[in-house]
Write a structure and sequence with these properties.
By secondary structure, the protein is α/β, with parallel strands linked by helices. The protein is built from 5 helices and 5 strands, in the order E-H-E-H-E-H-E-E-H-H.
């Protein structure tokens, strides 16, 4: 793994098979001082996590519908591995789910595609900094970004 900047807000593994969407998410998170790792499917993510990256990962942003190994399959593997099960998962998908995603092992609310930049930043900030102070700091980022046009990402 590249050296993580000590000033970063956390390490986020983005698991998304849509290369353009993955690049947009990466650029957005990096603009907010997150260190981003990328994987194009569950198998690639698992390989990254098992290569020793897991201790550094603060959050996995996970699409569900992907080739090779789906997000569903990755969640099952993460649940069964004590070292990996501690990593919060934020599920992003165009699939419909009622309520939150806790029933499938995700520790955050479900973020339905298409989502805006502000929604993604708020969900990531809450996952990594779940304290009232973290929420307040993330609200400042959201407020600052509210002045910019929000982009929506394609459904995947």
């Amino acid at each position: 793994m590249s050296t993580v900047d000590p000033e970063s807000r956390g390490v986020v593994l983005v698991v998304e098979d849509d290369q353009d969407l993955r690049a947009l998410v990466r650029d957005l998170l990096e603009s907010q001082r997150y260190f981003v790792l990328e994987a194009d499917d569950g198998r690639d993510a698992l390989y990254t996590l098992r290569l020793g990256e897991a201790p550094a990962v603060s959050l996995i942003v996970l699409d569900l519908a992907m080739p090779c190994m789906s997000g569903w399959e990755l969640i099952d593997i993460l649940r069964d591995d004590p070292r990996l099960s501690r990593i919060p998962v934020l599920v992003t998908s165009g699939m419909t789910v009622h309520g939150d995603a806790s029933g499938i092992g995700a520790t955050m609310s479900w973020l339905r595609k298409p989502y805006g930049e502000e929604e993604l930043l708020a969900a990531v900030g809450e996952a990594i900094e779940p304290t009232p102070l973290g929420r307040r700091a993330n609200a400042n980022v959201t407020e600052r970004n509210a002045r910019k046009p929000s982009s929506s990402h394609p459904d995947g």
